[in-house]
Write a structure and sequence with these properties.
single chain, elongated, five-stranded mixed β-sheet, two-stranded antiparallel ribbon, about 45% helix
Length: about 350
């Protein structure tokens, strides 16, 4: 999972002001899992100020780092010798392209430059190699994040939740009374009963023409709350310690409290959950919690992606990992509920 050259170069430009002020050479390391020669050519074509250097040997032993840097510079003489002498404001920027991450300590190393090096030949200079493999950051709406599956998964979960709740309320209404008491005050206008609330949500879901573009809406001036949207509102109003209790009510309303399945809790939700041993043993509560927290986390991702400029950038692998984890959690919750449709209570 690598950034395309243009995105990597854009990130390098954001890092330069923080790197070794006044140093004639600045070095970055990046692991490329494809043809490094092609990647280097693309870097060279995209930015004249960054010199791509394919690492073919060395950089395995810390006390040989200075020699390895000198050898690498010599290997790339054809690209470096024509450059103008570096200045404090315009250093030579080396991009070291490797097949693996930089596992040596990321500390400064002294390298003696060859005599032909522009403006600094024969000098010993300090070079700090910074590995960007895990840190090169992107915005949350970057195309490489590939979030299309999120929207379809959320639609599946919202529809499965609505269908199952509607089924259970018709078969055994008392099971759903506790959940209705929790949500009845959220919808505007206040629904007379759970059936009327669910039917409004089902009508909205039935009118969706593209699940790949589906988004939960919490703005009741434009649409009624669907069952999943209601759960998202509840999560936002509930402390982490009380989410398992909220989940218990939902699982009971789904007619699944007797044998709740194991599903994936999103990583971001896991980091916020209560550590109470009592809660960890409440399997029904944790199942319901996983459902509504998966929906809540997906809704937060919608917001972050839609307003990416307002949020910090993070490494591509992290953003992809978080997004993929939420998609899996939402899909697992949807699948668990879908499996219980038309099976009675």
């Amino acid at each position: 999972m690598i950034l395309d050259p243009a995105d990597l170069l854009a990130y390098i430009r954001t890092r330069l002001p923080d790197r070794q002020p006044g140093a004639p050479i600045v070095a970055f390391w990046y692991c490329v899992d494809g043809p490094r020669g092609e990647y280097a050519a693309a870097v060279a074509a995209a930015a004249a100020g960054v010199i791509p250097c394919v690492v073919r040997r060395g950089f395995q032993v810390a006390n040989q780092l200075s020699t390895d840097l000198t050898d690498l510079i010599v290997d790339h003489r054809a690209s470096l010798e024509p450059l103008p002498p570096p200045t404090a404001a315009d250093p030579v920027v080396l991009l070291l392209l490797s097949r693996g991450e930089f596992f040596l300590p990321q500390t400064a190393s002294a390298a003696r430059l060859p005599e032909w090096f522009p403006g600094a030949g024969g000098r010993e200079v300090t070079v700090w190699v910074e590995d960007l493999t895990r840190t090169a950051a992107v915005a949350w709406d970057h195309p490489a994040v590939q979030n299309a599956g999120l929207y379809e998964a959320v639609y599946r979960l919202d529809r499965a939740l609505a269908d199952r709740l509607r089924e259970v309320v018709g078969l055994d209404q008392p099971r759903t009374d506790g959940w209705f008491r929790l949500i009845s005050g959220l919808a505007k206008p206040r629904p007379a009963n759970l059936v009327s609330h669910l039917d409004l949500g089902l009508a909205l879901l039935a009118g969706v023409t593209s699940a790949a573009k589906y988004r939960i809406t919490l703005d009741q001036s434009t649409a009624p709350l669907t069952p999943l949207a209601t759960g998202v509102v509840l999560v936002g109003q509930t402390s982490p310690a009380d989410l398992v209790g909220l989940g218990s009510s939902l699982t009971e309303a789904l007619g699944m409290a007797a044998d709740p399945p194991d599903v994936l809790l999103p990583l971001t939700a896991l980091l916020e959950e209560s550590t109470s041993p009592k809660h960890k043993k409440n399997k029904a509560g944790r199942f319901g919690q996983a459902i509504i927290q998966a929906g809540y986390t997906a809704h937060r991702l919608y917001s972050v992606m839609a307003h990416a400029a307002d949020y910090p950038m993070y490494p591509l692998a992290l953003v992809r990992g978080v997004t993929d984890d939420v998609v899996r959690a939402v899909g697992a919750a949807a699948g668990a509920i879908e499996a219980r449709l038309r099976t009675g209570v």
